[in-house]
Input
Amino acid sequence: MAATDALPEPDCLDGAPHPRATQALFGHGAQEAAFLQAFNSGRLHHAWMLTGPKGVGKATLAWRMARLLLATPENDGGMFAAQPPTSLEIDPAHPVARRLLQLSEPRHYLLRRAPNDKETALSQVISVDEVRKMKSFFALSAADGGRRTAIIDSLDEMNPAAANALLKLLEEPPANVTLLLIAHQPARLLPTIRSRCRELRLGPLGPQDLADALTQAGGEVAPEDRTALAELSGGSVGEAFRLTNLDGLKLYAAVTRLMATLPGLDRPQALALADLAGARGAAETFDLVVTLIDLFLARLARLGATGQTPPEAAPNESALLRRLAPDEAAARAWATLAQTLSARARRGRAVNLDPAALLMDILLHVDETAGSLAQR
Output
């Protein structure tokens, strides 16, 4: 087996099916309708940028768009021309769908992070060489002279040279090629790239759509957990998948029970949480606990600034949030602390500080802020 065979796919969440193997898309009917209308009108833009938070279905939509483009015969205007499609659905048994699933479709190009030079790990970025390979692919004539597609997942991972090479391709697009570009943070991209694409923005999923998408991906969501999961995941299927795999709802409940002791942090509870997250081999749990603490602080800051209590993500959370963030001054304090602790956590992990000690330090700073706010 080649070394690259053992490498994970860079555009797939560990343990979840790849977006190209995902048939249904939940919660983005308007975006699908916009693309379908452009397709049926004969005025299809050559580049579509799918934007929005990670894990909300952008890649799934891109693969659905590619299947439609490659599996639907071109309308020659004859009396026997096929009727325009009414959805993006393509039969999984269709030859094009099977070839795309196997990454063997000759009219499609997938641009993503490649193995490094030694083929021992994935590159951290999409390089200019990878973009040049895609341009060379399109320089060849299509086997049947029909449509061709490419998916780039994602633009955020391109280095500057690769982004500039892509810009040149967008300025002089190959004939009959539709580029499907995925971007998690489009504001960071070159404005000239964004201006040459038609954007479809995908928002966070609601509780029911999130539960349906997670079930399709192999996860399970109890009805009573749907709202909490939507709140903690930000409507992202990818994040919801991580939360369910790592008992994220239970961990967040533990975090809120601990925060309920503020000010005057319950040290035994804090040590128990720190030991759990800092145990050997528990790096994913540590990262998730830090994320959940950051999320709790963000929810505090948002409530204090807006006065609007979010749906509960843990028992008795609403009353706790209102107590700890009663006004805008508290909101500013919690927001500032969240930024400070996030940077502290990144630095601590970078220099391999003991995870349990690092988490305990974070919790003590939270307690210190709560104490200061209580003395006002």
About this structure: The mean pLDDT is 92. Residues 246-374 form one domain. The longest helix spans residues 283-306.
